[in-house]
Amino acid sequence: MVLSRLKSLPSRTSDTAEIDLLSFEDALEGVSATVLLEAVRQVNQAVLGHAFHPSPPELRMLCDKIQRQISEDRARKAEGERQRRESEQRRLQHEKTKTPEARARVATMLSRFNQDHEARQAAARSDGLSETADQVRDRLKGQIGETAFNNIPDLPVRDTFKQVGHAR
Predict the structure, then answer these.
(1) How far apart are the C-alpha atoms of 109 and 10, rounded to whole Å?
(2) Tens digit of pLDDT per residue, the chain (168 long)?
(3) Domain of life, per the record (predicted)?
(4) Which of 39, 48, 53, 167 is most solvent-facing, going by the fewest CB within 10 Å?
């Protein structure tokens, strides 16, 4: 039996081995052999934090923890597989809709968009909306005068942007 691997550990056993065996049978009811084997391996690797033979409830809690991890791993794997299948189905469905007519419609819409975009950019350039900062500064100096322009206060610098050692 798997529990025989734990016999080398000091234990807090009762007076009779029969009571101990019944306690472990009750505590480990429904636990698979794989989970129990992993729990015993972890006990021998001092996962419980002590060097004693585990009590039946301790061993059951460790088995439950291992089973929970296994179940979560299976669920995560199943979810990943489901998402992969859905992605593949969407890709196949998308491939079906790529008919020559659909491609022509998309090409027409794209060319219309590009023409409209180029026209808007040309209009913005002719409206003077694409001025650089230097051009704006020179234009304002010409409109209000250099003295008035130089008297315009700068925006205050927020404290979060001040350099360490240079803050006022």
Answers:
(1) 79
(2) 666 666 666 666 555 677 778 888 888 899 999 999 999 999 988 888 888 888 888 999 999 999 999 999 999 999 999 999 999 999 888 877 788 888 899 899 999 999 999 888 887 777 666 667 788 888 888 888 888 888 888 877 666 656 666 655
(3) Bacteria
(4) 167
What residue segments make up the domains of the chain, in order of their start?
2-92, 98-127
Nearby residues of 67 by Cβ (< 8 Å), 6 or more positions away = 31, 32, 35
The answer to whether the CB of 162 falls within 8 A of the CB of 156 is no
- Residue 70's nearest CA partner among 95, 37, 92, 96 is 37
Q: Per the structure block, which two tokens stand in for 123?
A: 């209009």
- Of 11, 63, 68, 12, residue with least CA distance to 42: 63
| Rounded Cα–Cα distance for residues 78 and 85 (Å) | 10
How far, in Å, CA of 75 to CA of 65, rounded? 15
